[in-house]
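Morning F.,

Quick status update on the modeling queue. The single chain you submitted on Monday has been processed. Sequence for confirmation:
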Amino acid sequence: MIELTPQDRLDIIELQSFYAYGIDHKESHLISKAFTDDIELEYPLFGKLKGLEFLTRWLEVFHSPFDSTQHFIGNHLLEVDGDEVRYRSYVIANMHLDGAPGGDHMSGGGWYDDRVVRTDAGWRIRDRNVTNWWRTGNVGLLEIGREATKPLWEEFGAAPTR
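C-alpha coordinates below.
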Protein backbone atom coordinates (compact mmCIF):
# COMPACT_ATOMS: atom_id res chain seq x y z
CA MET A 1 0.00 0.00 0.00
CA ILE A 2 1.31 3.42 -0.94
CA GLU A 3 1.33 6.51 1.26
CA LEU A 4 0.50 9.85 -0.30
CA THR A 5 2.72 12.80 0.50
CA PRO A 6 1.33 16.32 0.36
CA GLN A 7 3.17 16.72 -2.98
CA ASP A 8 1.53 13.54 -4.31
CA ARG A 9 -1.87 14.97 -3.41
CA LEU A 10 -1.13 18.25 -5.20
CA ASP A 11 0.19 16.42 -8.25
CA ILE A 12 -2.94 14.24 -8.43
CA ILE A 13 -5.32 17.17 -8.03
CA GLU A 14 -3.45 19.04 -10.79
CA LEU A 15 -4.42 16.27 -13.24
CA GLN A 16 -7.91 17.78 -13.36
CA SER A 17 -6.42 21.15 -14.33
CA PHE A 18 -4.50 19.61 -17.22
CA TYR A 19 -7.74 18.01 -18.40
CA ALA A 20 -9.94 21.12 -18.05
CA TYR A 21 -7.42 23.60 -19.48
CA GLY A 22 -6.58 21.20 -22.30
CA ILE A 23 -10.22 21.11 -23.37
CA ASP A 24 -11.22 24.71 -22.70
CA HIS A 25 -8.12 26.35 -24.19
CA LYS A 26 -7.83 23.83 -27.02
CA GLU A 27 -4.37 22.77 -25.85
CA SER A 28 -4.63 19.03 -26.42
CA HIS A 29 -1.04 18.36 -25.40
CA LEU A 30 -2.17 18.94 -21.79
CA ILE A 31 -4.51 15.93 -21.97
CA SER A 32 -1.51 13.58 -22.12
CA LYS A 33 -0.37 14.98 -18.76
CA ALA A 34 -3.61 13.79 -17.17
CA PHE A 35 -4.09 10.23 -18.49
CA THR A 36 -2.20 6.99 -19.08
CA ASP A 37 -1.77 5.71 -22.63
CA ASP A 38 -4.29 2.93 -21.90
CA ILE A 39 -6.96 5.18 -20.37
CA GLU A 40 -10.54 3.89 -20.34
CA LEU A 41 -13.15 6.59 -19.85
CA GLU A 42 -16.89 5.91 -19.58
CA TYR A 43 -19.36 8.69 -20.41
CA PRO A 44 -23.02 7.81 -19.71
CA LEU A 45 -24.15 9.62 -22.86
CA PHE A 46 -21.35 8.60 -25.23
CA GLY A 47 -19.97 5.25 -24.10
CA LYS A 48 -16.48 3.99 -23.45
CA LEU A 49 -13.47 5.79 -24.90
CA LYS A 50 -10.27 3.70 -24.90
CA GLY A 51 -6.71 4.85 -25.34
CA LEU A 52 -5.06 8.24 -24.96
CA GLU A 53 -4.82 8.97 -28.68
CA PHE A 54 -8.54 8.30 -29.24
CA LEU A 55 -9.60 10.17 -26.08
CA THR A 56 -7.51 13.22 -26.96
CA ARG A 57 -8.86 13.37 -30.50
CA TRP A 58 -12.42 12.72 -29.29
CA LEU A 59 -12.22 15.59 -26.78
CA GLU A 60 -10.84 17.91 -29.48
CA VAL A 61 -13.52 17.00 -32.01
CA PHE A 62 -16.44 16.93 -29.55
CA HIS A 63 -15.67 20.41 -28.22
CA SER A 64 -14.63 21.96 -31.57
CA PRO A 65 -18.12 23.17 -32.65
CA PHE A 66 -18.51 25.36 -29.57
CA ASP A 67 -17.52 29.00 -29.28
CA SER A 68 -16.38 28.32 -25.73
CA THR A 69 -16.41 25.71 -23.01
CA GLN A 70 -15.50 25.93 -19.36
CA HIS A 71 -14.98 23.08 -16.91
CA PHE A 72 -14.88 23.67 -13.16
CA ILE A 73 -13.55 20.71 -11.16
CA GLY A 74 -13.37 20.68 -7.37
CA ASN A 75 -14.19 18.92 -4.09
CA HIS A 76 -11.29 16.51 -4.48
CA LEU A 77 -11.54 13.30 -2.48
CA LEU A 78 -8.52 10.96 -2.61
CA GLU A 79 -8.33 7.51 -1.06
CA VAL A 80 -5.43 5.06 -1.30
CA ASP A 81 -6.42 1.63 -2.60
CA GLY A 82 -3.36 -0.63 -2.70
CA ASP A 83 -1.02 0.78 -5.35
CA GLU A 84 -3.71 3.05 -6.80
CA VAL A 85 -5.63 6.09 -5.69
CA ARG A 86 -9.38 6.36 -5.97
CA TYR A 87 -10.16 9.97 -6.78
CA ARG A 88 -13.62 11.54 -6.86
CA SER A 89 -14.17 15.15 -7.90
CA TYR A 90 -17.18 17.25 -8.79
CA VAL A 91 -17.44 18.84 -12.22
CA ILE A 92 -19.56 21.61 -13.70
CA ALA A 93 -19.20 21.92 -17.46
CA ASN A 94 -20.48 24.78 -19.60
CA MET A 95 -20.79 24.90 -23.39
CA HIS A 96 -21.67 27.93 -25.46
CA LEU A 97 -22.55 28.24 -29.15
CA ASP A 98 -23.88 31.56 -30.41
CA GLY A 99 -27.11 31.20 -32.36
CA ALA A 100 -27.64 27.50 -31.64
CA PRO A 101 -31.23 26.34 -32.20
CA GLY A 102 -32.79 26.02 -28.74
CA GLY A 103 -30.39 28.42 -27.04
CA ASP A 104 -26.76 29.39 -26.81
CA HIS A 105 -25.78 27.73 -23.55
CA MET A 106 -25.84 24.47 -21.64
CA SER A 107 -24.51 23.64 -18.17
CA GLY A 108 -24.22 20.27 -16.54
CA GLY A 109 -22.88 18.93 -13.29
CA GLY A 110 -21.77 15.62 -11.91
CA TRP A 111 -18.62 13.91 -10.79
CA TYR A 112 -15.63 11.90 -11.96
CA ASP A 113 -14.64 8.63 -10.32
CA ASP A 114 -11.01 8.06 -11.27
CA ARG A 115 -8.35 5.40 -10.69
CA VAL A 116 -4.96 7.09 -10.54
CA VAL A 117 -1.59 5.33 -10.80
CA ARG A 118 2.01 6.43 -10.49
CA THR A 119 3.88 6.10 -13.81
CA ASP A 120 7.43 6.93 -14.91
CA ALA A 121 6.02 10.29 -16.03
CA GLY A 122 4.23 10.94 -12.72
CA TRP A 123 0.67 10.42 -11.56
CA ARG A 124 -1.87 9.69 -14.29
CA ILE A 125 -5.56 8.78 -14.47
CA ARG A 126 -5.93 5.22 -15.80
CA ASP A 127 -9.69 4.84 -15.55
CA ARG A 128 -12.54 7.37 -15.36
CA ASN A 129 -16.27 6.91 -14.91
CA VAL A 130 -18.39 10.01 -15.37
CA THR A 131 -21.68 10.49 -13.52
CA ASN A 132 -24.03 13.15 -14.87
CA TRP A 133 -26.18 14.58 -12.10
CA TRP A 134 -27.99 17.55 -13.63
CA ARG A 135 -28.26 19.64 -16.80
CA THR A 136 -29.83 22.97 -17.63
CA GLY A 137 -30.14 25.07 -20.76
CA ASN A 138 -29.95 23.75 -24.29
CA VAL A 139 -29.12 20.06 -23.87
CA GLY A 140 -29.31 19.79 -27.67
CA LEU A 141 -25.75 21.15 -27.72
CA LEU A 142 -24.60 17.68 -26.63
CA GLU A 143 -25.95 16.26 -29.89
CA ILE A 144 -23.92 18.79 -31.87
CA GLY A 145 -20.75 17.50 -30.19
CA ARG A 146 -21.81 13.88 -30.66
CA GLU A 147 -22.44 14.40 -34.38
CA ALA A 148 -18.99 15.96 -34.77
CA THR A 149 -17.36 12.79 -33.37
CA LYS A 150 -19.08 10.28 -35.70
CA PRO A 151 -16.27 10.21 -38.31
CA LEU A 152 -13.71 9.79 -35.54
CA TRP A 153 -15.29 6.56 -34.28
CA GLU A 154 -15.05 5.18 -37.83
CA GLU A 155 -11.45 6.37 -38.24
CA PHE A 156 -10.41 4.47 -35.10
CA GLY A 157 -12.46 1.40 -35.98
CA ALA A 158 -14.57 1.78 -32.87
CA ALA A 159 -18.26 2.19 -32.23
CA PRO A 160 -19.96 4.29 -29.58
CA THR A 161 -21.58 2.11 -26.92
CA ARG A 162 -24.41 4.62 -26.44
